Amino acid sequence: MEEARERIGERGLFVVGDAANLPFIDDIFDGVVSLHTFHHLALADQKRAWGEVFRTLKTGKRAAIVNGWTESEMMRRWQPLVKIAETVGNWIAVLRGKRKPAGKLKKASQKKPTGTFVQKLDAAWIRNELPAVAPGATVMIRCWRSVSVRWLRALIHPPYGKQALRRLFDREEAHPQEFGESGQYPLIVLKKNPL
Predict the structure, then answer these.
(1) Neighbour-count burial for 47-66, b at 16+ CB within 10 Å, e otherwise
(2) 118 in Cβ contact with 40 (< 8 Å)
(3) CB 72 within 8 A of CB 184
(4) pTM over 0.70
């Protein structure tokens, strides 16, 4: 909040609140943008947060929500290559002296979860659940970014990295719905239509 106040100054209204229970009246906003917020809520609260966005949005206006899918079809297909690239990269780092050889690693099932709470969803959830909380709304699934950070770290390196990303971005632009639904990070556009 302090950083936002420094950047925006008197041009902004700064409110700390619950995304699933917004402290605003109905039909107040000309637009709503949310980046990587809803997936930090439990699914029931995510549904309420979508309802709150819809409730506070003026008729005819749009909301843009960037979230992540629980499991991306595209990332699942790339998983074997990502694992190979990570293994090769780790060995190169060991050979260069930048990393010590790993001892026996714990199995994934033995690792304790770390980081913030995340409960993501999928395109079917959006199609099934949004009509109940956003009646009559137009919902479009587009691409914000189709690949995960893990994918980028494993596969995008000099000298070919910039060209590979340019090709990927061109494909995302040409097929926004396909990459939005099968990629990692969709941009979900919700338009509040008159009833």
Answers:
(1) bbbbbbbbbbbeeeebbbbb
(2) yes
(3) yes
(4) yes
